[in-house]
Each structure stands twice: as C-alpha cells, then as structure tokens.
Specification:
Oligomer: single chain
Number of domains: 3
Helix content: 10-25%
CATH class of the largest domain: Alpha Beta
Number of strands: 28
Structural class: alpha+beta
Strand order of the largest sheet: 3-5-1-14-11-12-13
Bound molecules: dioxothiomolybdenum(VI) ion
Number of helices: 16
Distance between the termini: 58 Å
CATH architecture of the largest domain: 2-Layer Sandwich
CATH superfamily of the largest domain: Aldehyde oxidase/xanthine dehydrogenase, molybdopterin binding domain
Largest sheet: 7 strands, mixed
C-alpha cells in the first residue's frame, strides 16, 4: 500500500467519541445499573503477612441492608489461577497488607461500606519483610523478564574493558515504587445469567479478561462476556485482571444478583499493581573520544510472595548504544508486598533514567557535549542481536531537537546560570520503546444504511484508538471516516490483543486493514450486483505476523529539558520540555501529540513528584491518596511540546506505524535530572528529585 492511497491516515481527526464523553453520554463500567443491583465493598487485610484466623460474619449480616459477607470460609471455589493474586478469598493466607480478605454485599454502597468497616477480623500475624536491598539474601535470578526477554545478556569482556577505559562512570541509581492512577479506578458490574457471566469492566483488553477469568470460574470462554466501550485510562494496571474483578464476579455468584464494585482510590495503592522500585548500577567505559567500550547495567527489583513479576528494566540498554563489551542483568526478591505490574513503559522508564543519567555523567567526565556523545555511539545495527533496525532515527531526533531547543551555545559548566534566586540548567536524554505487533481478529460489513461496520475487541483507554482505527478503515475501504462505524470494547467481537505495550493500534490496525481489504475486494468482484448490504468479511493476522521478517523494531526519541532550581529552598521547576520522536508514520497528529506530551508529563511527574513510600515496620506503602502521593498537575507543566521525524518503514505493518503511547515517558526523568545537575552541580541519582536532596 502506498502513502498516496491512504489520505485519512496522517491527517488530524478529532476523537469520534469526544462529544459523547464531554456530554456524559459515554458510559463507563460503574455507570451500568442492571435491575436488582447490589453493591460490593471489599475488605483489605490489616497485616502484612500471616493468616486470617476468624471473621465475625454473623455480626455484620445483621446490619441494615447487608445481603452477604464472604470470606474464604464461605466463598465459592475457583480453579487455581496462574497468578495467585486472582485466587481471591480462597485461603486464609495474607501475602501483603491491603490484600482482599473479605467482601460485603449490601443493598446500597453506604450499607456495604459501613458493614465492611465494622467487620471484625482476627489474624495470626507473622513477621514481614518488605525492604528491597541489593544484598537481600532472597535476591535471585528469574528465568526471564517481561514479557519473554532473557534475564541476562553478556558480550565480550565488560569487566576488563571497564578496568582499561580512560573515561569511566560507575554509579548507582534508584527509582521508587510508583502507583498507576488512571482517572477512572478499576470498576466492575458483574451479572450472572445461569452459566453465563457478563462483566462491565474497566479494562485495557476485553479478550484478555475473558480468557483469563473464564477458566477461573470453570466457564467456556463463550459464556463470559466482557464489555468496556469506554475506559478512563489504565497506564498498564488494567492489562491483566486484578483481584477486584474476581471479587465482583464471585460476590454476584454468591448472592445471585448483579453486583457493582469500584476500587477506591485508597485501595488502588494496594490491589491494582504498581511500578516496582528499582536499584540499578550502571558502569560505562569509553575511550578518550567518548566512544563506549563497555556498558554494564544491573537492576535489582521486587515482586510479591505470590506471583513473579519481573520488570524488564535493563532491556533498553541492549539496543541503545554501540559497545563491544556489555552486560545487562536483572535480579529479583520476593517480599511481603503487593505484586507489581505494568506501568507506562515498564522497564524502559526506570531503566533509561539510569542509563541516560550515566550517559550525562560520562559526557561530564569526558568533557563532551551530551548530544554529541550520544551521536558518537550510534550503532549500525542492533548492538546485541546484530539484526538490522527496521528504521532508527535517534540521531535525527537529537539533531532536530537540539536545533529547536536552542542547544547550540550551551555552556556545559554547572551551577553558573542565575535568574534571581533561580539556578537555570538544561539537559538531554534519549528515549526508546520497542515496536511490537500481536495477532488480532477483525470483521468488516456493509450495512443497509450505506455505512460500513468494523468490529474488533480493541480498547480505547483514552488514547484515540477508536478514531485511528476509523481512519485506517476508511482509507482501506476507499471511503470517508463518516461512513465507517468502528465498534470496539466487547469480548463478543473478534478477539484482539489488549491496549498495552504501545502495540494496540499496530496490532488492531493490521487486522482492520486485512478485513477491510477483503471486503473491498469482494465488493469490487461483485460490482453491479445488488444488494451488498449484509456482506461481511473477517481477518485473523496470526499467520501474517508469525511470518514477518526478523528486524530490530523500535521507536526512538530525544528529550530536552530546561529547569530552574531555587538556590535557597531547592524547589525545582521544569520550565521547558521538548520531545522529538521517530515513531513510524503518525496516524493522527492530534491524538499522537497528546500521547507524546502526556507521556512526557508523566515523566516530569516521575522526575519531581511520584513516590510511594514503604514503611518497613508497618509493612506497606504509607501514602494512599492524592494528598500524599503527588502527580504533576497543570501548574507543574509549563512549556511542553513534541515534534516527530516522519519515518517510512516498510517492515512494520500496513500503516507503517510504531507505537506512541509509552515512548513519551522514557528519558524524561533523566533529561530533568541532567538539567538539574547543569543548573546546580548536584547529581541526583535517586528519584524523585525532591528539595531535601538538593539543599
Ligand atoms: Mo502499557 S504499561 O503496556 O499499558
């Protein structure tokens, strides 16, 4: 397919469901209210490790409006899931503080809350261990890291090369736990009809929820329907089912009525996942010209006792820069903590904070401009796999970014630019994110009203995916977007990969193109015949994706930051952020730009604010609300902009697109930290950059 044939892809289009959303007609999971509805409120454990000895169920079922109180002593039995987080109310064990140990179902939300609050629970508490340390005796080497990467890689002799290098950096960086906080919390309305279960659920993937939960409840997949046309964000925490959706389904089964459940904001800090804290040691060695001879990146992180989630923290280091000697590794310790999950650019975001901070330290040590240092270490092919890049335009992003940002006359001396009390500095960092694509199915149909209907169990979590798919379908059908209805967010539609890994639009778009191509061909073949209405085609992209050529496929970018640091208080403000990205063809400039600057905003938030604070003695994260867990707000974001380098990459998918959802957060925190160093001469290696670390 040539560019000329696809006029809508590449042009700005407003979100199709925008009017529905701003007028309140778009209905989210919690807004569904079937007849005879009851409300469920889960009860979190108040110990970090041990067993539930008893729960006084009888006392609360007497309370007004209470229908049932469910705990492991009376809960319906579930099949054993692969992820033990989903074996909700199946055993007396408590694996972390906040884990659900009971659920109260009542006629109203107020009744359920009050009864849940009054539930008396007795525990046999055991000593807990929640402290992530590099020398933890439980530290081990997982078999692989998410989703299927080797745990460790090694080439050449990185240690000897480091010992011999004239310019070196050896530094340890740390990033805190951060909690995914989409605007819409996890919510479910569960409805049983005999052996059929319907879930209105806030999820990033209806097909994934169906496929994971059906076996848990002993159902054939076709008996479980997941409906989620509108989702208010997820950032990775709604990729896999969380305990809340299981509790809702289980409670509805127990009481024989539809049940509604929303995770509270406070509970989101325990049961919906988070970004693992990391400790990372980076060693870089370079020759006198700044050419890297060795790169060593070691990550230490945590998972829970009940499930191994191994974040792929050092995987970006495997593709970024040329160096003949290199090593990356991941080590994990299982603690009495909730299970971490995906959070926007899991791996890349914390990993590139460490690598790109270390690159800045190398630039300082070698007295080389940090933009030039990165350009000098540009590899000709993927440095570890040896595969050719399908396209790689990091250098173009760095050069064009430097030009637009006004980098050219930068004085590298730290701590010398003042504007009144404020110290001013600038910093740069690279970004990268892998370009994935997974099999999906789609259908396309001619309707009697002259419209085309395209169906796929895709998920629009606020990204604009529905709109992008409409543009893609319109181009393939050689019609206008106004004549295409894209229906998504229902597991009864053709199965699709979830909205995650920045691969939604690439994966779904491929299936939509193939289904629409078949329909267009069929219509051409039948030209002149009537009627076309009812004609339907479908596509499954498994074979196409399995057969694709091997390439190293990644998006790249460059982030530039200007900061001001108050020389008395250490208060840091990001004055300017500019991101330049090379992410294939941009399908919709308006929604893509929102993804880029949204990711960058989350990166700013990671740099300066976000931090879940573990209290070792209490055994839990202490900050459980927005008063204490800070997220960048409008006033924190001043001048922010993104641009892109158009790529024409034929090795990706029919649209030529790479993902745009995650790369915007990658590198931002390092660019800010590097700018803070330039402003103050103080190197902050531990996020977030709070004023106590600067004064
Ligand atoms: Mo993203 S963390 O893969 O939703």
């Amino acid at each position: 397919m040539t560019t000329a044939a696809i006029p809508y892809v590449g042009s700005t289009m407003d979100r199709i469901e925008g009017p529905e959303k701003v007028t309140g007609r778009a209905r989210y999971a919690f807004e569904h209210s079937p007849q005879d509805l009851a409300y469920a409120v889960p009860v979190p454990a108040t110990i970090a490790r041990g067993e539930v000895r008893s729960i006084d169920i009888d006392a609360v079922v007497q309370l007004p409006g209470v229908i049932a109180a469910i705990w492991h002593g009376n809960a319906p039995r579930l099949s054993t899931p692969e992820n033990a987080e989903l074996a909700v109310l199946q055993s007396p064990r408590v694996a972390y503080r906040g884990q659900y140990i009971a659920v109260v179902v009542a006629e109203t939300l107020q009744d359920a809350r009050e009864a849940a609050r009054r539930l008396r629970v007795e525990y046999d508490a055991e000593p807990h261990d929640v402290e992530l340390r590099v020398d933890h005796p439980g530290m081990y080497r997982p078999d692989q890291v998410n989703p299927f990467y080797p745990t460790d890689t090694e080439m050449g002799d990185p240690d000897s090369a480091f010992a011999a290098a004239p310019i070196v950096v050896d530094a340890t960086y740390s990033t805190p736990a951060e909690h995914n906080n989409p605007m819409e919390p996890h919510a479910t309305v569960a409805l049983w009809d005999g052996d059929g279960l319907t879930l209105y659920d806030s999820t990033q993937g209806a097909s994934t929820i169906r496929d994971t939960l059906a076996p848990l409840f002993g159902l054939p997949p076709e008996n479980l329907r997941v409906i989620s046309p509108h989702v208010g964000g997820g950032f990775g925490s709604k990729i896999n089912p969380m305990p809340s959706v299981v509790v809702a389904a289980l409670a509805a089964k127990q009481v024989g009525r539809p049940v509604k459940l929303s995770v509270t904001r406070q509970q989101m800090f325990a049961v919906t996942g988070y970004r693992t804290p990391t400790i990372q040691r980076v060693r870089l060695g370079a020759d006198a010209d700044g050419r890297l001879t060795t790169i060593v990146h070691e990550a230490f992180e945590q998972s829970s006792r009940i499930y191994e989630f191994a974040e792929q923290t050092t995987t970006p280091t495997r593709v970024m820069y040329a160096a003949p000697n290199r090593r990356t590794s991941h080590r994990l310790v299982r603690l009495d903590v909730p299970t971490p999950t995906y959070m926007r650019a899991p791996g890349e975001a914390p990993g590139m904070f460490a690598l790109e901070s270390a690159m800045d330290e190398l630039a300082v040590a070698g007295k080389i401009d940090p933009v030039e240092l990165r350009i000098r270490n540009e590899p000709a092919a993927d440095p570890e796999s040896g595969l050719p890049f399908s396209s790689r335009n990091l250098v173009a992003c760095l050069r064009e970014g430097a030009r637009r940002f006004g980098w050219a006359d930068r004085d590298p001396a730290p701590g010398v630019r003042r504007r009144g009390r404020w110290l001013i500095g600038t910093g740069v960092a690279s970004s990268t994110y892998p370009t994935y694509r997974r099999p999906s199915q789609a259908s396309a149909r001619c309707d009697p009203d002259g419209m085309f209907t395209v169906r796929i169990a895709a998920s629009d979590i606020g990204t604009g995916a529905r709109t992008a798919l409409t543009q893609i379908a319109a181009d393939t059908l050689r019609t206008s977007p106004g004549r295409v209805r894209v229906e998504i967010g229902d597991s009864a539609m053709p199965s699709a990969i979830m909205a995650g890994g920045s691969m939604g639009t690439a994966s779904w778009g491929t299936a939509v193109v193939r289904a629409c191509q078949s329909l267009a061909e069929e219509l051409d073949r039948r030209y002149g015949e009537v009627p076309a209405a009812g004609l339907e085609t479908s596509a499954d992209t498994t074979e196409e994706i399995d057969a694709q050529q091997r390439f190293s496929r990644h998006a790249f970018g460059a982030q530039f930051a200007e900061v001001a640091v108050d020389s008395d208080s250490g208060e840091t403000r990001v004055l300017r952020l500019l991101g330049g990205f090379a992410a294939g063809r941009i399908i919709n400039p308006k929604t893509a730009r929102s993804q880029f600057i949204g990711g960058m905003t989350m990166g700013l938030s990671m740099a300066l604010l976000e931090e879940s604070i573990m209290d070792d003695e209490f055994g839990d994260y202490l900050n459980h609300d927005f008063a204490q867990y800070h997220i960048a707000a409008c006033a924190d974001v001043r001048d922010i902009d993104a641009f892109w380098i158009e790529e024409d990459d034929p090795h990706l998918n029919p649209m030529g697109s790479k993902g745009v959802g995650e790369i915007g957060i990658v590198g931002t925190a390092a660019a800010v930290a590097n700018a803070v160093y330039h402003a103050t001469g103080v190197r902050i290696r531990d996020l977030p950059i709070t004023l106590d670390k600067l004064v």
